Amino acid sequence: MATEPHFIPPARPLIGDEERAAVDRVMRSGMVAQGPEVAAFEREFAAHFVNGRETVAVNSGTSGQHLGLLAAGVGPGDEVIVPSFTFAATGNSVALTGATPVFVDIEPETFTLDPAAVRSAITPRTKGVMPVHLYGHPFLADEIAKVASETGIAIYEDAAQAHGASWRGRPVGTLGDFAMFSLYPTKNMTSGEGGMVSCATAELARGVRLLRNQGMETQYENEVIGFNARMTDIHAAIGRVQLTKVDAWTAKRQENAAFLDAQLGNVSGVTVPVVREGAVHVYHQYTIRVDAGERDQIRTALKDEYGVGSGVYYPIPNHRLPSLARFAMNLDLPETEKAASEVLSLPVHPSLSSSDLERIASAVQKVVGAGA
User: Fold this and answer.
1) Which of 2, 100, 144, 160 is deepest in the core (most CB within 10 A)?
2) Are 105 and 336 in contact (CB under 8 A)?
């Protein structure tokens, strides 16, 4: 009797024996809060990803964005330009400072902020722009930097999905005043939960350190009103192990993406991801475009008929979310709306086997070719 093929999930965290042993080591040490493991993780992460730029560990990517903005002086009366086509944490982090998130459109190839739209949205209140390296493709850094330089606004990077990506040889995380990396379980590497803030200046890094720890660097000498946004040594120990594996995982993601490109690039009704010249894409997601009217049926058929999971990131643009819509009354973002209705992310994670990849490609060819 034939067995049913296993289900291929759209994402899969990779936690092995080395990570478990690292957690056990910390538990035995008795030092489980922010301690030596966190300090070591910060140094190692900085050296690995951002050319040694000072990096501060926090308890989540969203905390990293929020504290980075606060440390950069963003607050009430300011505006920060953000994409609507991203996870809500981008806009949320701006709103949490008391500033106003200003949503603008994306350019369709990379799903990242349209530099012309950024320029058009700048007002005297604009403090900065927070582009997202969406799905692992860097934003168009040359053009965004030109706009920022000519208008005097700052760049704050949302690098949640882009560990190891680069633009014209410059790693993401070194392109703005600060950058936030997420270490959530489904990201390209994880610490179980957590975030890292890469800072351009020692002053900004100190600000983030103060804010993450109740406003103090020295115990009981509280300098500002802060938060408890510390990373634990348990999480840092997991992250340190993952740092030794992430490059191989990234290479496998890129290899998997190249296979899917070759198999799906000529399928009518499928648009495979674009990689701009000078960009290194790390494929947090392998996101195709399909017909908006068929997207949901295609997703269902892939799952039910072929056991292939997929994801839609993100079906509701931020400017239409009940939580953020008040910042975007009567806003028209056509490329954002189009992307939200057409995108479908296929499995690309490094645990896929060659037979998994063949099944994914074959399923998309059959389902899209048949019109779902």
Assistant:
1) 160
2) yes
pTM exceeds 0.90 for this model: yes
CB neighbour burial string for 321-353, b if at least 16 within 10 angstroms, e if fewer: beebeebbeebebebbbbbbbbbbbbbbbbebe
232 and 154 inside one domain: yes
Partners of 179 in beta bridges: 157, 198
Structural domain count of the chain: 2
Of the pLDDT bands very low, low, confident and very high (cuts 50, 70, 90), residue 1 is: very low
Same domain, yes or no: 37 and 166: yes
Q: How far apart are CA 328 and CA 361, in angstroms?
A: 39
Confirm if 69 and 94 have CB atoms less than 8 A apart.
yes
User: What are φ and ψ of residue 190, in 5° steps?
Assistant: -140, 160
Q: Where are the strands (E) in 136-276, listed by range?
A: 154-158, 166-167, 170-171, 178-182, 195-199
Q: What is the CATH number of the domain that holds 259?
A: 3.90.1150.10
Percent of the chain with pLDDT over 70: 98
Which H helix or E strand runs over 24? helix 17-29
Instruction: Please give the Cα distance from 130 to 156 (Å, whole number).
Output: 5
Question: Which of 184, 212, 243 is the C-terminal boundary of a domain?
Answer: 243
Q: What average pLDDT is seen over the chain?
A: 96
Which candidate, 66, 158, 155, places its Cα nearest to that of 112? 158
Read off the amino acid at residue 325.
Answer: A
**Are 360 and 274 within one domain?**
yes
Clarify whether residues 90 and 233 are in a common domain: yes
- Counting every residue, how long is the chain? 372
Q: Note the pLDDT tens digit of each residue in 312-349.
A: 999 999 999 999 999 998 899 999 999 999 999 999 99
CATH number for 118: 3.40.640.10
Of 211, 243, 275, the domain-final residue: 243
Q: What is the pLDDT of residue 329?
A: 86
Range of the domain at 299: 246-369
17, 8, 81: which is closest to 346 by C-alpha? 8
Distance, in Å, from the CA atom of 58 to the CA atom of 45, rounded to the nearest integer, reads 13
Tell me if 1 is assigned to some domain: no
Q: Cis (ω within 30 of 0) for the bond into 314?
A: yes
Q: Say if residue 124's pLDDT is above 50.
A: yes
